[in-house]
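User: Could you walk me through two proteins back to back? I'd like the raw sequence and the structure tokens for each, with a short line separating them so I can tell where one ends and the next begins.

Assistant: Of course. Protein one, sequence then structure:
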Amino acid sequence: MTPSSFKYLSTWISLIIAVLSSVVLFYLSINNESVAINRFILTIIAWALLTGSVIFLFLKASSKDVREEEISTSSPEKKSFKTSKTVKADKLDIPSLANKIVRKAGKAEKPGALGKQLLNVCVKELEIMAGVFYYADENNVFKPEASYANPNPDVPYSFKPGEGITGQVAKNKQVMVIRKIPDEHAEVFSGLGSAKPSYIALIPFVINDQTKAVLEVAGFRWHNEALEQLFQIVARDLGLVLKEKNSVEKEQ
């Protein structure tokens, strides 16, 4: 018999003894026909069994409460285990997530479809609040090809390398994550209200040492260093995918 089975069986036996003892004591209290000495002996036995079973059940319940309290407040291993699960749930799996973003977005052929798919993946995986995908035309002017929850949908924004923050990213060919958002930055509006993002990320996609597209997203989650690392991998790998597609188009 395992220890857990023994504890379970002993608990039920103690409970049955307590109930039977109570019944015997009740019977003796209302029945005066038994011999006095037998009544005395039965009463002592019933009280002893009842007291013993009640004490056993009380001690078992108390020891269980103490163990649970020690586990929740005093055991560093248990606390660290729960904390590690929470921390793990809040971390980004950089390689697999970057691969998923590149794989799904890379299936699109045209810039508009590519930008839309890229934004859809970022919405699902990174919970971005808003985003715009810019693509350079033959005059190297970046124009919006796709957007998500654009706060200014009636004002199409275009730029050349070096113009504004987005243009600087296109010129420098480096991922930029802005965490200190200016107060005048546009808020994102929805049916639930409005909110200012906690970060803005600008991701350039370089083909043959020239920025061909820029992704701008704003969000409120994953604004630590892991997010910047993720976008750097996406910029590199998706840039290679775009380069291959660009080479195929030229050959055709």
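----
Protein two, same layout:
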Amino acid sequence: MAIPSASVKDMSELIRQLRQVAPSFGHNQYWFRGHTQQKDRPLVASVHRYFNAAEERQLVLQFQAGAVGRTSHCPAGDDFGSWLVLMQHYGLPTRLLDWTRSLIVAAYFAVVHEPINEDAAIWLLAPERLNMLVPEPIDGICLLNGHVAAPQVRSLAEAAFREVPCKSELYAVLSQDLDMRVLVQSGAFTIHASGVPLDEHPRAQEFLARFDVPAASRTAFQEELSAMGARRSLLFPDLHNLARELATTGAQNIKISERQL
């Protein structure tokens, strides 16, 4: 059976289609992921796109070794989930695939984050349903990191660093908020032991759906998202992105009196 999909031209149609599709997944929460290019469809964690298992272990171990001298906020050595989140945050390819619990954030990444004129896509994931369809099911969603992480999820994270047995190759997980970006983007993850795309799972239609955004509709989405307050400086809360947003929008949009500063 094919994964449910629909073409949407603006946010209102996206919400309407979401309300039609979502009930088929039961009364679960939903996560989203925006792809700025619809053709970039395979839901594969970045490390599995470019590296084999041995190379993945070398990447994470070298990052661990190098990070200790560069920051005082490193996770505990055996908190493998927190290390993966830290690596993902700084752009190292990992076995984590980013999702968000916010439809607005996913739409931003699909149509605003990169200024290109191509068809985009927004994925929907029913994470609780996914976690019931793996060899070692989890009832609900658990944390990836910290002492309360489920043993099977800890093993899947540890397997990025050394060879350990894992019965399940896939889970939907949440992270403790290790940085402001994860918090403001309502971040969540799927963790993958292999490069098999999530959308090629034999039962993908039971937990995935896709909404396609035609290139001609990107401007309508961008205008609506701007009105909703989806801005770079809020989703990436650092000085670099604040400066980038101000430089892009221009001084004519700044109405702050000098007396307020």
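The two ends are 59 Å apart (CA to CA).

Let me know if you want the two compared in more detail.
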